[in-house]
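Input (structure):
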């Protein structure tokens, strides 16, 4: 069943310039490849049946080899870090440092997952980035930092040079390598700067967790016990916890988020120069911020002027931190606003209705749609609505990528067209769970331009879309 084609006469009365919401839904230019005409999927899921699944790609031997090497690398680095920390701190200090360092992790991880509400990233990639930062980055950074610290000592140079010149370079580079690998091998999973912030942020959280084990367990508890006993060790752990975690726990995620911004920009551009320069600029900025952060206490200690560190933190780092928080919050809503800019192409083609697009524009509307779906179709309807919203967001990102020219190669265009068809078929199948189940909603259909509703007297009449659509009104697509 296909949607009717335009016969040439106007389907709607004349509107003033800058007309209503329905006009914008119906008349938005495509700005890219033509939207396929509406056709029913080959095997739509029946109401109450299993949720549709996207086509799974086979795991080739090359992908399996890369995956195996990455897993082995992370596992080897984890064993190495456990050995180094255990042999240097001792079991008791290691356990105390581990417990104290883990405490802020759920809070920080939740903040990044909160940013990723519209189009949640696959859990395996989130775990990969966290594990990469926690084990691979820390192992490489610890080795390089200790090497240069020994060389500087041999040359009679101050140890502070390691923290100012070496640590920012190697730590930011290694923290970013995990997300960079994802960008290289899984570029289509990146939806923009938000994903860059999430992936790089989780890598930084993993790095900070293991680094805090060293500070809390070694410089805190172990050194305190060696000097004055367990009570002093406990007090030092509390003091370091307050300073490193409660006051400045945002430091590593803040630095690496600069790289995340660059990677996110590179993921959504077709310009090769931007793809190279944006991540490089973000990485250099991350190194500069990290080096400045480490330089401030060194200057304060060398000059005896504590206010240098205070002014630097309050005048430089804190404003940058709040600026990044503001950017992250704004980007969080970008994917919701993106659906309202790109999905009208599919409204005109008859795949979606204006209220369905409107219901995707904010998290509040999405929650209302899920509540409605559960009321009319139970848990199956709730699950289907979640899948519908995720697929619609993926479709909006895919359409945005077409407009940006991300699929210039024939193979990319073919893959984009295939993914677009899969997403459209999935949307149609998900809709079957809740369409026509609400006794309070009118029975009708949408032809891409207006509704055809059945009234209580049994008559069927065309009805123009309202200026501000009621959310949601799922109807049959014809």
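Output (sequence):
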């Amino acid at each position: 069943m296909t949607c009717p084609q335009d016969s040439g006469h106007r389907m709607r009365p004349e509107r003033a310039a800058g007309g209503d919401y329905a006009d914008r839904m119906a008349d938005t230019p495509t700005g890219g490849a033509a939207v396929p005409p509406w056709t029913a999927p080959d095997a739509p899921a029946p109401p109450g049946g299993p949720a549709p699944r996207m086509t799974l790609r086979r795991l080739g031997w090359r992908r399996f080899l890369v995956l195996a090497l990455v897993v082995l690398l992370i596992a080897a680095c984890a064993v190495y870090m456990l050995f180094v920390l255990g042999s240097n701190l001792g079991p008791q200090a290691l356990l105390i440092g581990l417990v104290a360092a883990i405490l802020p992790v759920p809070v920080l991880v939740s903040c990044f997952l909160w940013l990723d509400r519209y189009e949640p990233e696959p859990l395996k990639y989130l775990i990969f980035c966290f594990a990469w930062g926690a084990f691979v980055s820390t192992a490489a950074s610890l080795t390089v930092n200790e090497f240069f610290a020994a060389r500087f000592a041999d040359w009679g140079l101050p140890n502070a040079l390691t923290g100012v010149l070496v640590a920012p370079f190697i730590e930011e580079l290694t923290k970013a390598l995990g997300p960079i690998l994802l960008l290289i091998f899984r570029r289509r999973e990146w939806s923009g700067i938000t994903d860059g912030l999430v992936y790089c942020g989780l890598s930084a959280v993993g790095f900070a967790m293991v680094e805090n084990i060293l500070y809390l367990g070694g410089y805190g508890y172990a050194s305190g016990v060696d000097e004055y006993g367990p009570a002093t060790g406990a007090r030092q752990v509390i003091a370091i916890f307050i300073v490193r975690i409660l006051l400045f726990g945002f430091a590593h995620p803040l630095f690496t988020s600069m790289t995340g911004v660059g990677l996110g920009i590179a993921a959504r551009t077709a310009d090769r120069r931007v793809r190279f320069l944006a991540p490089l600029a973000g990485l250099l900025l991350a190194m500069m911020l990290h080096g400045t952060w480490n330089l401030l206490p060194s200057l304060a200690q060398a000059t005896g002027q504590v206010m240098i560190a205070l002014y630097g933190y309050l005048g430089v780092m804190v404003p940058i931190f709040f600026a990044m928080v503001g950017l992250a919050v704004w980007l969080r809503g970008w994917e919701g606003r993106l659906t309202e800019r790109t999905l009208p192409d599919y409204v005109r083609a008859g795949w979606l209705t204006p209220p369905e697009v409107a219901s995707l524009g904010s998290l509040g509307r999405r929650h209302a749609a899920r509540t409605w779906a559960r009321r009319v179709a139970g848990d199956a309807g709730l699950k289907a609505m979640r899948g519908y919203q995720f697929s619609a967001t993926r479709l909006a990102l895919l359409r945005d990528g077409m407009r940006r020219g991300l699929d210039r190669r024939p193979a990319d265009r073919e893959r984009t067209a295939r993914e677009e068809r899969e997403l459209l078929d999935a949307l149609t199948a998900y809709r079957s769970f809740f369409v026509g189940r609400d006794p309070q909603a009118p029975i009708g259909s949408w032809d891409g331009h207006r509704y055809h509703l059945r009234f209580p007297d049994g008559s069927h009449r065309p009805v123009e879309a309202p200026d501000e659509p009621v959310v949601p009104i799922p109807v049959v697509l014809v």
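Notes: The CA atoms of residues 130 and 202 lie 5 Å apart. Residues 21-45+338-477 form one domain.
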